[in-house]
Amino acid sequence: MEQRFDDLAFERLFKDHYRELHAYAQVILRDTITAEEIVQGMFLKFWEKRALLDIQTSVKAYLYRCVYNDSMNYLKHEKIKLKYTDFVVHSMNGTHEPASAKTELGELELQLHHALNELPEQCRTIFQMSRFEELKYREIAEELGLSVKTVENQMSKALMLLRLKLADFITLMVIALWVYYRDFFN
């Protein structure tokens, strides 16, 4: 009977707050479909982690805070994707950049991809959230249900392993970045 009560309570919570939360997310994101995905994703995470939740405020305030955080994380991620796209477009369309630099940059990207894939899963996830999504250690810890100290340790491990795996390419990275920024600002 308890499971049925949980289902009904969750359904009531969803019906009571979905429309307002969607409107709130839409104001932040300025996109109806993305706002819908954010709110639905937030409710899904809420349902999946319901046994672990320790809400210190009202449920409504908690839901709004979750939608706000998820929306801001989405916007940060989009900003990073845009920066990366700009970098790739610039580096691949550079008219005065030698073909060898493009080849080296492609090789570097491939090596970085391989090195990331060789990291342990939790280590890789934390690294990507920190470096690509620009989340703070505290935010990562909250999202993954870990302590901040665990996140710090996993980041240290990731950086150490990446340094070892990419040692041969460090000089290449410096040169590639120098060429990119030199051309970008000229």
What do you see in this structure?
With 186 residues, the chain is an all-alpha fold. It folds into 2 domains: 1-73, RNA polymerase sigma factor, region 2, helix turn helix motif (Rna Polymerase Sigma Factor, Chain: A); 94-186, Winged helix-like DNA-binding domain superfamily/Winged helix DNA-binding domain (Arc Repressor Mutant, subunit A), CATH 1.10.10. The protein is built from 8 helices and no strands. It has helices spanning 2-29, 32-48, 59-93, 99-118, 121-131, 137-144, 148-165, 170-185. α6 crosses α7. The radius of gyration is 21 Å and the shape is elongated.
Concise description?
This protein has helices spanning 2-29, 32-48, 59-93, 99-118, 121-131, 137-144, 148-165, 170-185. By secondary structure, the chain is mainly α.
Secondary structure layout plus pairing:
Layout: H1 2-29, H2 32-48, H3 59-93, H4 99-118, H5 121-131, H6 137-144, H7 148-165, H8 170-185
Helix pairs in contact: 1-2, 1-3, 2-3, 4-7, 4-8, 5-7, 6-7
Q: How is the quaternary structure best described?
A: single chain
- Please state the second-level CATH architecture of the largest domain: Orthogonal Bundle
Give the low-pLDDT segments: 1-5
Question: CATH homologous superfamily of the largest domain - what is it?
Answer: Winged helix-like DNA-binding domain superfamily/Winged helix DNA-binding domain
Strand content: under 5%
Principal-axes shape call: elongated
Q: What's the Cα radius of gyration?
A: 21 Å
Give the H and E element order. Answer: HHHHHHHH
Can you give the mean pLDDT?
A: 79
Number of domains: 2
- What is the straight-line distance between the termini? 69 Å
For the largest beta-sheet, the strand count, sense and barrel status come to: none
So what's the CATH class of the largest domain?
A: Mainly Alpha
> What fraction, in percent, of the residue positions are helical?
over 70%
- Kindly name the structural category: mainly alpha
SS summary, helix count: 8
